Automatic annotation (TrEMBL):
Domain of life from the UniProt record: Bacteria
Compartment list: Cytoplasm
Organism ancestry: Bacteria, Pseudomonadati, Pseudomonadota, Betaproteobacteria, Burkholderiales
Keywords, ordered alphabetically: Cytoplasm, DNA-binding, Phosphoprotein, Transcription, Transcription regulation, Two-component regulatory system
Pfam families per UniProt: Response_reg (PF00072), Trans_reg_C (PF00486)
Protein name: Response regulator transcription factor
Coiled coil (UniProt feature): none
InterPro entries: CheY-like_superfamily (IPR011006), OmpR/PhoB-type_DNA-bd (IPR001867), Sig_transdc_resp-reg_receiver (IPR001789), WalR-like (IPR039420), WH-like_DNA-bd_sf (IPR036388)
PROSITE patterns given in the database record: OMPR_PHOB, RESPONSE_REGULATORY
Domain OmpR/PhoB-type per the UniProt entry, residue ranges: 124-218
Location of 4-aspartylphosphate modifications: 51
Record feature DNA-binding region, as residue ranges: 124-218
Annotated Response regulatory domain residues: 2-116
Source organism of the structure: Piscinibacter gummiphilus
């Protein structure tokens, strides 16, 4: 399983990466908010360990960006903030657990195992559009019951559109869903993913609404 550790304390991050690696996890480290957003836009992680006090912005901003693009990846907040109001804010933003520093490595490992178990047992509604079936729980897509291989960004684009069936989805909404608000996105990026999805899932599945965005074609 691959984890993302978002922590600006270099010594603590090194200790956590070492311990988690020994426990059998593969760990990427992001020291600040921009690095965390970039990592999350390019990878699908099994879980995220997230500090709140970060250079470049609050960890809560990172968390909200994850949840706003329908990403159910488990997130454990690791922070020195121990006020009840801070815990409530973190949980309300979509965190799965909240661990106050300093903590024992064994407790972190136990909480990580717990959120991963809950994630595996989480029931997510399967989305369908014509002959396309998308299962968020397994991040799988089928066409006529045959598996379709999508890149992470193609998958997020399709998920955002299937979540909004019957409505026009703007390019900005798709950029938010795929990248979580990253500013350095080329203007034609979304069009490229839509083009790839049409090739893999059918030319007429996604309709361009000129001047507005895109819409799923649910007609048979």
């Amino acid at each position: 399983m691959q984890l993302l550790l978002v922590e600006d304390d270099a010594m603590l991050a090194e200790a956590l990466v070492t311990g988690l690696t020994r426990a059998g996890y593969k760990v990427d480290h992001a020291p600040d908010t921009p690095a965390a957003r970039l990592a999350l836009s390019d990878h699908a992680y099994s879980a995220v360990l997230l500090d709140l006090n970060l250079p470049g912005g609050s960890g809560l901003t990172v968390l909200r960006g994850v949840r706003e693009r329908y990403d159910t990846t488990p997130v454990i907040i690791l922070t020195a903030r121990d006020q009840l109001s801070d815990r409530i804010a973190g949980l309300d933003a979509g965190a799965d657990d909240y661990l106050v520093k300093p903590f024992q490595p064994d407790e972190l490992a136990a909480r990580l195992r717990a959120v991963l178990r809950r994630a595996q047992g989480r029931v997510a509604p399967v989305l369908t559009a014509r002959n396309i079936r998308l299962d968020p729980a397994t991040r799988s897509v089928t066409r006529d019951d045959e598996p379709v291989s999508l890149s992470l960004h193609e998958y997020r684009t399709l998920l955002a559109m299937m979540e909004r069936q019957g409505r026009i989805v703007t390019r900005q909404q798709l950029e938010e869903a795929v990248y979580g608000g990253e500013s350095s996105i080329e203007s034609n990026t979304v069009a490229v993913y839509v083009h790839q999805l049409r090739k893999k899932l059918g030319d007429d599945l996604i309709v361009t609404v000129h001047g507005h965005g895109y819409k799923l074609n649910s007609a048979p």
